[in-house]
Amino acid sequence: MAEILMTPSEHCSYSELSFTEFIDQYTQHQALYEGKMPKTRLFELTLPWLIATEQFMLPENSQVLVHCLYQKTEGQESTLSIAWPLVHITDKKSSKVQLRCLTSFYSALGEPIFFMPAVKENLLQLFSYIEQQHQWHSMQLGAFEDGIVSEALIEYFRYQKIFSQTNNIYQQDITDYVSYYQQRPSQLRNTIKRRENKLAKAHQYRIEIITHVDKFPAAFTAYQVIYQQSWKGDEFSFDFIEQVCLAALAENKLRLGLLFVDDEPAAAQLWFLQSSCDECSAQQDKMAQNNSRAQNSCIAKNDSGQRQTTASIFKLAYRPKYQQYSVGSILSLALSEFVISQDHVSRIEFGMGAEPYKKEWLNATRVRSSYQIFNAQSISGKLAILRNIVLPRLVRLFTRKNSK
User: Fold this and answer.
1) Residues with Cβ < 8 Å from 401, sequence gap 6 or more?
2) Local confidence band at 205 (pLDDT 50, 70, 90 cut-offs)
3) Which region holds residue 173: left if phi is over 0, alpha if psi is between -120 and 50, else beta?
4) Taking phi first (over 0 means left), then psi (-120 to 50 degrees means alpha), and beta for anything else, what does residue 344 get?
């Protein structure tokens, strides 16, 4: 643990806000924060997504506290540097308190909100405040991609382990639809062409891509019908899905694709857009530390007019009665063409999941990790450390010795 951070820094201060207080403060001072918060890489890291998560996805006996780190500048007021909304969950029986990111199973990532460039020392300082000023048993943080947040977490907390890891399938440096299409496996391209011809001979079909709120109510009803009749069954919270979609529509960041067969809804997909500088957003944490050469390169590319938009595939569903026509793949190809040609995306990614078929659509894979952290300052935390870290290490050591 970074012992020098166990005492407050003279350059930093800390406070915690309720989630409502934070939202009120943010909305009342948007002009102050404008331009200071880096554009998020994905829509699910934005404030509207967090608001919907807090409203629809929290367990009982929980509250959201926003842990805020402020930077002090001589002669000026303190400026908000990091705001990290964390869910504090209290167990009814044991009174143990667990902290976790304001995420749900709908979220692929959970990160702090940076109002200034991410700096590891600031994260370490925020961890110090959270550790000292709150009683908690464990924290579950993430998922994170490799970068400054996970580096700071591993450096500061001695008793932590990887809780889960997931693969993220993506493709970057997309320049145009034709080249993207040619990169797809020939088997996939030929299958889609055959199934589309088969569908056109047997039925009338059409594809709609919804980008405006006036067409959303009818489109969302069709999405619900498709989803409920798909292999996925009922949705946990259509209210959550509807709210984040409406918020994305308000910012022109939703692409809701629908495929109708004889006017019957057959397939649906939800994609989110996020305009940003791709390399800066994907690696902004590392570059903010010391990689100025990569940062300058990224800025140069951005200034030259290179497209810097990410499309994230959030939901896919189709009705099994139309599976023989590969309606899901036909719709995926249509949406791919739309976001590349019309929205000028340079990156497409599947939000979650690494099913084999996804590698036919996108060509790169990265790992996202969630961490479980145990508090050595509490009795229950110490017991958890023994159970989850010390004993497994002893078992592995004993097993290795006996295997020799």
Assistant:
1) none
2) very high
3) left
4) left
What is the Cα–Cα distance from 154 to 126, expressed in whole angstroms? 14
Average pLDDT for 259-276 = 94
Ramachandran class of 147: left when φ > 0, alpha when ψ lies in -120 to 50, beta otherwise: left
Neighbours of 175 (CB within 10 A): 12
Strand 79-90, strand 12-18: pairing: unpaired
Strands 364-374 and 205-210: unpaired
Collapse the DSSP code of 349 into the 3-class scheme (helix H, G, I; strand E, B; otherwise coil) and give the result: strand
pTM of the entire predicted model: 0.87
Q: Which of 298, 328, 325 is nearest to 313 (CA)?
A: 328
Helix (H) or strand (E) holding 260: strand 254-261
How many whole angstroms separate alpha carbon 103 and alpha carbon 84? 12
Q: Give the separation between CA 207 and CA 192, rounded to whole angstroms.
A: 15
Question: CA-to-CA distance for 317 and 117, rounded, in angstroms?
Answer: 38
Cis status of the peptide bond prior to 317, with omega within 30 of 0:
no
Looking at residue 32, what is its pLDDT? 55
* Residues contacting 182, CB < 8 A, separation 6+: none
Say what the pLDDT of residue 31 is.
55
CATH of domain 173-345: 3.40.630.30
- DSSP β-bridge partners for residue 9: none
Domain range annotation of the chain: 3-165+370-403, 173-345
Domain 3-165+370-403 indexed as CATH 3.40.630.30 = yes
Q: How far apart are CA 51 and CA 37, in angstroms?
A: 17
Q: Which residues contact 93 (CB under 8 A, 6 or more apart)?
A: none
Token readout for 9 is: 């820094």
Q: Are strands 309-318 and 264-275 parallel, antiparallel or unpaired?
A: antiparallel
Residue 201 token pair = 């001979």
| Residues 6+ away with beta carbon under 8 Å from 230 | 317, 318, 319, 320
Report the distance separating Cα 203 and Cα 297, nearest Å.
51
Instruction: Name all contacts of 340-345 with Cβ < 8 Å and 24+ positions apart.
Output: 340/174, 340/176, 340/177, 340/180, 341/176, 341/177, 343/255, 343/273, 343/309, 343/311, 344/307, 344/309, 345/174, 345/273, 345/307, 345/309, 345/310, 345/311
Percent of the chain at pLDDT exceeding 90: 69
